[in-house]
Design brief:
Layout: H1 11-21, E1 26-30, E2 33-36, H2 37-54, E3 63-66, H3 71-83, E4 87-89, H4 96-106, E5 110-113, E6 133-134
Parallel strand pairs: 3-4, 3-5
Antiparallel strand pairs: 1-2, 5-6
Helix pairs in contact: 2-3
Organism: Gymnorhina tibicen
InterPro entries: AMP-dep_synth/lig_dom (IPR000873), ANL_N_sf (IPR042099)
Keywords: Ligase
């Protein structure tokens, strides 16, 4: 029934419902850290603010995300969803022609990457806990 609703219920809607109802419940356990719904909501709000205010990212712009499996990936995805920006998920282990092909296929106007991925392509800069940032 949820899929037939108009407008459709999204994963962001479900996350925000849980964040309101049970903010202190653990959402993610990574290494020795536990992140609650409230933690992820706050971090994603900060990331969304930085992306929109500092970079001028607007709804509808595709962003390629080149991050390893870590909490930053989750709050970056949430931030982009809150801004209405499609996210092109890039495998952070891909290099060379395969990476170039993935970037071209994504038609992203911005690439977010971890600090360890700097130098893979183009100009790099900083973005809080999301390291490198390139604008193709």
């Amino acid at each position: 029934r949820r899929f037939s609703r108009r407008p459709a219920v999204t994963l962001l809607d479900v996350f925000q419902m849980h964040a309101r109802r049970r903010p202190h419940q653990p959402l993610l356990h990574f290494q020795d850290e536990i992140y609650t719904y409230k933690d992820m909501d706050r971090r994603s709000n900060r990331a969304a603010w930085a992306l929109s205010r500092r970079l001028g990212l607007q709804s509808g712009r595709t962003v390629a995300v080149f991050l390893p499996n870590e909490p930053t990936y989750v709050w970056t995805w949430l931030a982009l969803a809150k801004l209405g920006c499609p996210m092109a998920c890039l495998n952070c282990n891909v290099r060379g022609r395969a990476l170039r092909h993935a970037l071209e296929a994504a038609q992203a106007t911005l690439v977010l990457a971890s600090p360890g991925e700097r130098g893979t392509t183009g100009h790099s800069g900083g973005f809080g806990n999301v390291g490198g940032l390139w604008s193709p």
